[in-house]
Amino acid sequence: MATSGKAGNLFEFALLILLGILWGVPFALNKISLTSIPPITLVTARVLIAAAMLWMFIGLSGYKIPNPKGLIGRLFIQGIITCVLPYTLIAYGQQSVDSALAAILNSTAPLFVCLISVIWIRNEPITRERLFGVTIGLGGVVLIAGASALAGLGQAMVGQSAILLATISSAISVILGRRLAAIPAELAAAGTLTCAAVVLVPLCAALETPWHSAPSVASIIALLINAVFATAVGFVIYFRLIRTIGSVSTASVGYLKPAVGVLVGCALMGEPFTWTTAIGLAAILLGVAATHQSNSFKASWPALKMGIRARPV
User: Which helix (H) or strand (E) is 30 found in, with range?
Assistant: First the structure.
């Protein structure tokens, strides 16, 4: 039975926090996997496994596969701007950019979503609360990463530009993801990841010859966790949230990713938890809460109840 009102809004907010956790943990998982798996090979394997898991779930659930006009083209565009470009550009950029500065640059996606929404799309209101949330959330990320990380701005311009391009691509993908609202989130996720894999597989084969790699057991386990939970489950939640709470609120998950990464580092790797970190985390949670507007949920929930989701056979 569908939830409504405050209960439904809290449920969507909980899903947003869960997505932040699912997409923040891979920072640690990737470090493990990259010890014996090349970066593009890792991304390709992650996307392929996640797509296969989702298609298996869809087949067992008995979903009807819709065939609206232009769906394949939209899925290919979504796969490229959601997976292929961000993943490969960030992997390239992090070769010359410190991880702290990379986290700050990559967390500016909500700012770009706001700018694009105001200048181009104009389909979501940019309220004072949302602007406050976007600003305070970014400030929290800077506090966590360390303000000294900003000293690296202007150096390694090619790498920094690559990360910013990846961030802009992610911002556009959140906005264009609304075009897939007419199909179930599971199908949108599976189709997007499959189309991304179609592009990534030949790219991986050409650049890294993955058949020559010898991944360790730890790398494979980390890859599987990353693929099943962070990618397969994460993308289903992602497409649901785009439809129910809107682009700006969904993009605020970019602030949660580095926060989760820091918490994982403190809990599992013995990294220090300082007052600056605590204030940064509080600012991020406040920013995410401010961007999560109840009116966007209320506006979209009736459409969800009226049959946006496809019904099983």
Answer: helix 26-33
Describe the crossing of helices 128-145 and 109-116 by its angle, rounded to 10 degrees: 160
- For the segment 147-157, the average pLDDT, to the nearest whole number, is 66
Tokens of 291: 């961007």
DSSP assignment of 109-140, as one string?
HHHHHHHHIIIII--S---HHHHHHHHHHHHH
Q: What is the per-residue DSSP string for 215-268?
A: --HHHHHHHHHIIIIIIIIHHHHHHHHHHHH-HHHHHTHHHHHHHHHHHHHHHH
Cα separations (Å) of 94 from 19, 36, 163?
Answer: 23, 17, 8
pTM: 0.81
Contacts 24+ apart (CB under 8 A), 207-212: 207/40, 208/38, 208/39, 208/40, 208/41, 210/38, 210/41, 210/44, 210/45
123 token code pair:
């389909």
Average pLDDT over residues 124-132: 68
Q: What is the per-residue pLDDT across 153-188, written as a single tens digit (0 to 9) for each?
A: 666 788 888 888 988 899 899 989 988 988 899 999
**What is the residue whose two structure tokens read 């986290």?**
103
